TrEMBL record:
<dbReference type="InterPro" id="IPR036388">
    <property type="entry name" value="WH-like_DNA-bd_sf"/>
</dbReference>
<dbReference type="InterPro" id="IPR036866">
    <property type="entry name" value="RibonucZ/Hydroxyglut_hydro"/>
</dbReference>
<feature type="domain" description="Metallo-beta-lactamase">
    <location>
        <begin position="33"/>
        <end position="248"/>
    </location>
</feature>
<protein>
    <submittedName>
        <fullName>MBL fold metallo-hydrolase</fullName>
    </submittedName>
</protein>
<dbReference type="InterPro" id="IPR001279">
    <property type="entry name" value="Metallo-B-lactamas"/>
</dbReference>
<dbReference type="InterPro" id="IPR050662">
    <property type="entry name" value="Sec-metab_biosynth-thioest"/>
</dbReference>
<dbReference type="Pfam" id="PF00753">
    <property type="entry name" value="Lactamase_B"/>
</dbReference>
C-alpha cells in the first residue's frame, strides 16, 4: 500500500470499522506526520487519539481529514492525548476552542505541562548551562545551550486526568487506558477492547525506537525512565492485541514481537556504555559522543544532541540504579564500572 498524502484519511474501515487515521503534518521533522486517530462514537462526534502539531497547516490537514469521514473539528467529542510532546498535544487546545470538547492527559504529563507553562526561559537556560558544564560539555555547547530549549505556544491544560486501567469516555466503544511510562512519565496507550487493537502513541513504533530520556536532569536522580519503559514494553506484550495503531509510520501486527525488538535495542545500548567504561571513567558528554546515533554524532544539531544526552543519561541512570555503574567524580561528573 502506498502512503497517502499528508492531511488525507484512509477510507472508512481501512484501519478498523469506525476507526480512521488522519496524517497531520509534523513540520520540519523527518517523521513527516503524526497519525491522529478518529474513533466514531454514538455521541454524535468522534474522539481523537492525539491532536498533532500546533501549526495552521497541521490544523488544516486535520480539518480536511475529518471532513473526508463526514465529520468536522466542531463535532469532536474529546481528545485523548497519549503524551505531552507537542506533535501529539500541540493542537489539543485549538481543537477544544473550536469544538468545546474535553482534553485528557495522564496526571504525570499534566505536571510537565504545568511546568512548561510556568517556567521562565532565562533561569531555565542558566540551569541547563550549569548542567552541561557538570556533564563535561565543551564551551561551545554550553554557550549554545539556549538552542536546546524549545520555545512556542503554551500547551493546553487538560480537563480530564487519565488513570491507568480506566475506561475512557468513548460512547459506543470500550477503550481502556494503559499507562506506559518511559518515553514520557505519563505516556499512555489505549486498548480498544472491542476490537483488540492497541493505540500505541510513541511507545511501540514500527522501524524506529522512541527517545527515552531522563524525566528530571541528565546526571543523577532516583527516577528510572528506561526501567519504566522496559517494564511498559512487557506490560503491553501481555495484552491480547490484534493490531498496533501507532502515532508514526503505519499500523502493524505483533505488538509483542516489536516490543521484544525494542527491548533488545536498549540492551545493546546498555552494553555499549559498559564497553566504553571498561577503559576507564567518562563524563556523560564523552559517553554520548561515543554512542551510535542514526545520523552520527557530528551531524546532530543542538536540539538533537540535547535529546541524545537525555537518552544516554537514562541509560546511565538505569545502570547506576541496578548497580552496574557508579559515580566516580562530581566536578565534572564521571561514571565508572561498579
Amino acid at each position: 500500500m502506498q502512503d497517502a498524502a499528508p492531511g488525507t484519511t484512509r477510507p472508512p474501515g481501512e484501519e478498523l470499522p469506525g476507526v480512521w487515521s488522519i496524517r497531520v503534518p509534523f513540520p520540519d521533522n523527518p517523521l513527516g506526520y503524526t497519525l491522529v486517530y478518529a474513533l466514531e462514537t454514538t455521541a454524535g462526534g468522534p474522539v481523537l487519539i492525539d491532536a498533532g502539531w500546533d501549526d495552521p497547516g497541521s490544523l488544516a490537514a486535520l480539518e480536511q481529514g475529518l471532513e473526508a469521514i463526514g465529520s468536522s473539528i466542531s463535532d469532536v467529542h474529546g481528545v485523548l492525548v497519549t503524551h505531552h510532546h507537542p506533535d501529539h498535544h500541540g493542537l489539543a487546545g485549538r481543537i477544544r476552542e473550536l469544538s468545546g470538547c474535553w482534553v485528557a492527559l495522564h496526571e504525570a504529563d499534566a505536571k510537565v505541562v504545568d511546568l512548561v507553562r510556568t517556567a521562565e526561559r532565562e533561569p531555565w537556560t542558566k540551569r541547563y548551562k550549569a548542567l552541561l558544564e557538570l556533564c563535561g560539555a565543551p564551551a561551545e555547547a554550553i554557550e549554545n545551550a539556549a538552542a536546546a530549549i524549545p520555545s512556542g505556544a503554551k500547551p493546553a491544560v487538560p480537563d480530564v486526568l487519565i488513570e491507568d486501567g480506566a475506561l475512557m469516555d468513548v460512547p459506543g466503544r470500550t477503550l481502556r487506558a494503559v499507562w506506559t511510562p518511559g518515553h514520557s512519565p505519563g505516556h499512555t496507550c489505549f486498548h480498544l477492547e472491542d476490537s483488540g487493537a492497541l493505540l500505541t502513541g510513541d511507545h511501540v513504533l514500527p522501524g524506529i525506537t522512541p527517545v527515552v530520556t531522563v524525566y528530571d536532569d541528565h546526571v543523577v536522580g532516583t527516577s528510572d525512565p528506561l526501567g519504566d519503559f522496559l517494564a511498559s514494553l512487557q506490560k503491553v506484550s501481555r495484552l491480547k492485541t490484534t493490531r498496533a495503531l501507532p502515532a508514526h509510520r503505519a499500523p502493524f501486527d505483533d505488538v509483542a514481537g516489536r516490543a521484544a525488538e525494542i527491548t533488545e535495542h536498549h540492551v545493546q545500548r546498555l552494553a555499549q556504555i559498559e564497553g566504553q567504561l571498561a577503559v576507564g571513567p567518562k563524563t556523560l558528554w564523552s559517553i554520548t559522543e561515543g554512542m551510535e546515533w542514526n545520523k552520527g554524532w557530528e551531524r546532530l544539531d543542538t536540539f538533537a544532541r540535547h535529546l541524545a544526552l537525555g537518552e544516554a543519561g537514562s541509560h546511565l541512570r538505569h545502570l547506576a540504579l541496578t548497580g552496574r555503574v557508579r559515580l566516580s567524580s562530581t566536578e565534572p561528573i564521571e561514571f565508572s564500572l561498579a
